[in-house]
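Following up on my earlier thread - several people asked me to post the actual chain instead of describing it. Fair enough. Here it is, all 366 residues.
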Amino acid sequence: MKNISKLLAFGFMGLMLASCDDSYDDWSQPQQNPQEEIITLPNFTATVAQPIDFDQVTSDSVTVFTLNDATLPEGVTLEKGRLEMTAQNAAKTTVNVSGNGRACTAELLDAVVAAYGKRPVERTMKAEVLLNAMKDGQAALIKAGTIELKLTPKASEYTPIYYLVGALQGWDPAVKTCMFYPESQTVQTYTTQWTGDGNLKIWDDNNFGDWNNCIGAATDGDNAASGKLVTSNAGAIVCPEPGAFYTLKVDFETMSYTWTKLENQTPKEFEKIGLTGGFNEWKSDEELTATAPHNWTAEVTFAADTELKFRANGDWGTSWGINMNVADTYYGTCTKNGVDNNIKVPAGTYNVFFNDITGEFVFAAK
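Reply from S.P.:
Thanks for posting it. Predicted structure:
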């Protein structure tokens, strides 16, 4: 093995490491010089820690890896370093780590949310472990291998996904075409013309297709203007006027629902709705499929971060947007025909839902 003191000369630079709590020194930016020499040492590797569920993490930092017992050359000490993290088509993210394998909890959570969104599903991110080795006041960068982190975003910060099934699109437990539009973590709505006999039941995303865990009315076929929701022996909820335009508002905290009839019973109809933006150079449309009246959906993949809008009939006569980033909140309500109201969407694959009456939308990351 080469003498470490010689290798140090290749990677010499001052340590500039960022802080998360008192166990971290103050630093402005991590080392990211593309010319820096990276050293590998025989048998010196990192082993990934246990999967991390951020709802269970209460400290400012969390262990992401441990190092084996390989002996460093005499006089060499490990200082802080970084993880170079990658996932799906997301850009590389740098997360600071201490020499004993701990990362700032907030930085690590930000990295997985930026790559996948806030949905509380275990995600895999590859991370190259790079550590600073110090000797006689000089530093060299040591690669301790690549690990695969298992990370689950906070369920407590996520708005659950709910679907309705019934007369609008059939009762097939394999068809997820009608997603509720969240207004908050507990309140969600769906606006449409309630065709057929106007009845429905509700499933959350985790129990979709399980009739023993569907949500509905205490009395099957209840067509009252409001009522209570139950999760045991749930019956069908029925629109007070099948065939009319209503908004169904559901409060999953109070387990209640209300129906509100739209004043305009003849909303403008569009032949097609699509997405256009930086991902297609604003030149064409990624068309959505009509599901329930005035509701649209599509599965869309973006190779890179992008900005976009919804628009009708492939032109700018009618468009919808809002100045927000779906990495922060995966749902919202657009304004019509605005100028500076592009929706920012991180790279990834999404189930997109849109209502052309209300302007409500969902980008549910897969």
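Residues 1-35 have pLDDT under 50 and may be disordered. That should answer part of your original question.
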